[in-house]
Amino acid sequence: MYLAAQRESALIFKSIRPRASPAAFHLRMKSRILICNDDGIYSPGIASLAKVASRFGDVRIVAPDVEQSSMGHAITSSRPLRYRRTPLPGGFEAYRVNGTPADCVALGTYLWERVNLVLSGINLGPNLGSACWHSGTLAAAKQAALLGLRGIAFSTAVTITEKAPDFSQLEPYVEKVLELLLEKKELCLVNVNVPEKPRGIRWTRQAVKQYDGKVVPGKDPMKRAIYWFTIKPLEGEEEGTDRWAFGKNFVSITPLRLDLTDEKDLARVLALPITPARKARRKPPAKSTKRNSSR
Question: Which of 229, 251, 271, 286 has a CA-to-CA distance to 17 between 20 and 30 Å?
Fold first, then answer.
């Protein structure tokens, strides 16, 4: 009876334990993976990402205590931060921080040494094209890159009814992307967008020809003017871009970099002839108009 109970317990454990990835098996004992997001520590997306990441290494979640969407790469310098243990479903070690996504990565890597990889997401909403500039999800990955670590941001679509995505359907693609990217160690900063029903994976570039931000005016209950900053739908994206791939239901993987230098413009201005600065003429000292009164 004891052996039967023990076998049953083992079967139950096997059914709930995340499936180990063959490609990542050799990384399991030495990798430390920090998980962050901008939707807040209680978002279902971060639990899903932690579940997949646990197949590749030891996982710790450090995330904002409240939603920090579109916070960009802000850091908190005017007040102290707090780091509190937070119980989450799945039994992952998790901490909440009263700060931004970038704060969470900076503090998380400071308090958990020898982190190998930082993952951010899974964000509730895509981060495509110009959204890369103000995305808190991507900012967490960028903070990792600033610290000399690898950072990968994951985002997915949210329906108009605001119903949470079925993460169980997305997890196989998240795992496949991680398997692919972990082999390419030269990619230090990557933005990944996973559509609701993926039909493949594409390497893409960032769409920059259109901007989707807009201001929407309104009135508060006291009839005073208020304004919302939101997004508008875009059409006609160029083939090969992240927005194009996502619209075609492909998982978009976009390698990014911290260096924002426009190499073409820099080369152009460096090639311009330089006019030597003229030496300023020294004016002769003004003659004194004062008469010598000595006799």
Answer: 251
Q: Which amino acid is at 218?
A: G
Domain residue extents for the chain: 2-208+235-270
Cis peptide bond N-terminal to 122, omega within 30: yes
Give the separation between CA 170 and CA 43, rounded to whole angstroms.
15
Q: Please state whether the predicted TM-score (pTM) of the whole model is above 0.70.
A: yes
- Stretches where the chain sits below pLDDT 70 are 1-30, 159-163, 275-284, 286-295
- Residue among 158, 155, 157 at smallest CA distance from 190: 155
> pLDDT (tens digit, 9 = 90+) per residue, 27-84?
555 699 999 999 999 999 999 999 999 999 999 999 999 989 988 999 999 999 999 9
3-class DSSP assignment, residue 142 = helix
CA 53 from chain centre, in angstroms, equals 16
The alpha-helical segments, DSSP class H, found in 22-162 are 44-53, 101-111, 136-146
First to last CA, the chain: 132
Q: Which residues contact 152 (CB under 8 A, 6 or more apart)?
A: 117, 118, 119, 120, 141, 177, 178, 181, 189, 190, 192
Cα-Cα-Cα-Cα dihedral sign, residues 71, 74, 75, 78: negative
In the CATH scheme, what is the code of domain 2-208+235-270?
3.40.1210.10
Minimal CA–CA distance to 127: which of 115, 139, 116, 118?
139
Question: Backbone phi, then psi, for 253, in 5-degree steps?
Answer: -120, 115
